[in-house]
Every structure is written in structure tokens, then in C-alpha cells.
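Predict the holo structure. Ligand: 5-phosphoarabinonic acid.
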Amino acid sequence: MLKVDLSGAKSFFDAAGPDYAAAAAAHRTLTEGTGAGADFTGWLGLPQRVKNEELKQIVSAANRIRGRSEVLVVIGIGGSYLGAKGAIELLRPRPQAGDPKIIFAGNSMSPDALQGLLEELGEKDFEINVISKSGTTLEPALAFRMFRGLLEAKYGAEKAAKRIVATTDAHRGVLKGMADEAGWETFVVPDDVGGRFSVLSAVGLLPMAAAGIDATAVIETAIASLAAMDQRSPENPAWQYAAARQHLYRLGKSIEILACYEPTFRYMAEWWKQLYGESEGKNGIGIYPASVEYNADLHSMGQYVQDGPRTLMETVVTFENSLNEFNVPFSMGDPDSLNYLAGRKLSEISRLAQEAVKQAHISGGVPNMEIKVERRDEVGFAELVTFFELACGISGYMSGVNPFDQPGVEAYKKNMFKLLGKPGAQ
Ligand code: PA5
């Protein structure tokens, strides 16, 4: 079970400490559906809802894709892609035998990036999973038009239709209309689940399962984890994290850096940034979510963290047991002076380095919160996702915002559609 360790932040708390009464109230508001945005709290019960029939359909679609295609092109942006990308990078960073390559498109408008994807695709057999709740987001819609054209040119319209899966709203939107008309297989983004909270629906599960991740284990763990975190006490890790970060924010720590010592965590951090940034950054307030990759960033951002403006708090995600182990070899003559480490495990050296970083940053004025999961597997992933989602809802309500809307995202779209001359745009 995931654990939060606040020992590295304690010396920064004032006498009052984290406000667990406020965390309790926010948790109640969330589960009783009495707060702003309550219509978008369906993610709390999502794993339970997905568990039976839908999960079977997802796994069966994934197996079909795995059986006949070398590439799955997943088209989506924001909440419609970051969760799956984070999961696949974390759990399946390199395809194994029988795994199709998962290519993510529709998250940029760069012609050069598109060219790169087309070169990666080459002549390989492929299919498409297009994901858009609204069905109208321009970036993925444009990419879909292009990749669909390629698919139809390669297989003919009729066979191509059997190679497209659309994940979208159950009733509304251009994509839903297109899917119905063309007879594509569809999965649903539930009405009561916003994009950034949708990773445990078909949005995340289908690409994950196609990549070879055990979606059933993810869902079973997510159900158990949400049940465990229903606990109403300061022992609840979601309360601990939410209350601690809100407390530190009030003390002037306005930037939270999420750190991990696993390079495969990079896109999980991107997912986390969207989750917290889009949920909390509104009405002129909100902790700014940033991320660093240790050890690499200790040699680039380390100076700033240790010695820059003291507005940082640091949250470190740790996988307690690595999946692999190496011992440092002995070298005759000790030419590099490293024999003092000979015979020691790389994981142990890494752990001690992490402890050294933690102490240095704390003494430099950066409070440290640790989030510990056992290992980098489906269980660890599902625990992290459910924990961060629940803590986000609680933290958002504690700060007084509606954590489930994103009105600010519309501003650029309005300008863009006007500039592009979209009919009806003002
Ligand atoms: O969290 C969100 O709501 C956003 O990130 C959306 O997921 C993103 O803008 C993509 O929207 P859509 O799925 O409607 O294409």
C-alpha cells in the first residue's frame, strides 16, 4: 500500500501543522457530491464501474490489435493521452515480444513531429485509437483526418473501418457522429469524468492493454486502493499529502516540484502536472506543479532547488524495490578510485544518494514529502493514480476552487478559431 512520509516537511510546519479537519471536510464534500463541480466526480467510482463488461471489451479490443498490428496510433491530447502515455512509459518503456509499438499523435501541430511519426510508422500494419471526449479538439481532429486517410489508402475504406476505435462521449460530438455513421468500434468517456481524471476508463486502459499492460490488475488495485483511502483519519495518505501541500502553500511555498529517480516516470509527472495544474490553478491562486528527473536534474536544476528562491516544496515518488539489480564490479588497481563501492548494490548506492539529496534540500529550505510505492508495476501505478486523483480533489476543495472545471483552457481556442477563420468563430 502506498505511503506518504512527511518527516522531511515537519520542521517547516508551524505550530498548527496540516489542517486535517479541513481535509476531512473537503473529503466529505467530494464524496457527498456537495461541492462545485460535483457532476464531475464520477472518477471516484470509475474502476468499479469499468470492472466487468467494459473491461472485458477493452481487453478483447486490445488483444485484437495486438494480434494483427505492429503499431497502434493513439490520437489525443491532454487528459485524452497523458495517462496512457505515462503508464506505458512507466511500465512498458520498451515493447516486448508481441507488443505493438504505441505511437502518440494529435498532441502537437508540428509538421516536423508529424513527419517523425510517419517515418516511425513506415509500411507497418497499424490501427488507430482516436480519443476525444468533446470530439472537437482541433489538434487530435487534424491528426485523425491525416492518419485515417493513410489507413483508408492502405486497407480500403471498408477494412479501415475495422481498424479504428473511437473513445468519445456516449451521445454527443462530431467524433461520435462519425463513429456511428462509419460503424467504428466505440468506447465511452463517461459524462461525469473529466479528461484529466479519465485514465482508468477506456481512455487510458485500451492503449495500456494494447501495449501489454495488465489492465485487470490495474483496475483491481484501483478498486482496493480507493476503498482503503476512504478511511476518514489523518492516517489517510491522501489527507496527509493534500493537507501538507496546502499548508506549505500558505507558508509561501508556491511551487511544487515532483521528483522521481526513475527516468521512466517522466510522463507520469506530465500527467500529474495536468491533474494538479488544471484542477488548482484558477481564481488567481494555485500551487504551480513542476517536475524534475533525478539524478539527471541534480546536475542541472540542483543549484536552483538548493539555492534559488525559497518558494519550492519537493515531492519525491519512490519505488521501494527496483525490478533489477546490479553489483559494482571490482577493478584491479582501482584506476577510477571506485573500489570503495565494489560489491555494493546499485540500488543501495542510489538509496543513499537519495537520502543525501533529501537532507541537503531540507537544510536548503525546501520541505520534502515522499510518496512510496512498492515497485514499478501495475499495482504501484494504480496506487499512484488513485492516490493523486483523490488527493487532488481534496486539495482543490481545501483551497476553495472548483477542481473539476478548466475555463482557462478555452481562451486560446477562441483566439485560434478566429484567426483560422472557423465559420461562426468570434
Ligand atoms: O482534462 C481535460 O479536460 C483536457 O485536458 C482534455 O482532456 C483535452 O483538452 C482534450 O479534450 P478532448 O478529450 O475533448 O479532445
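The chain has a mean pLDDT of 97. The chain has 16 helices and ten strands.
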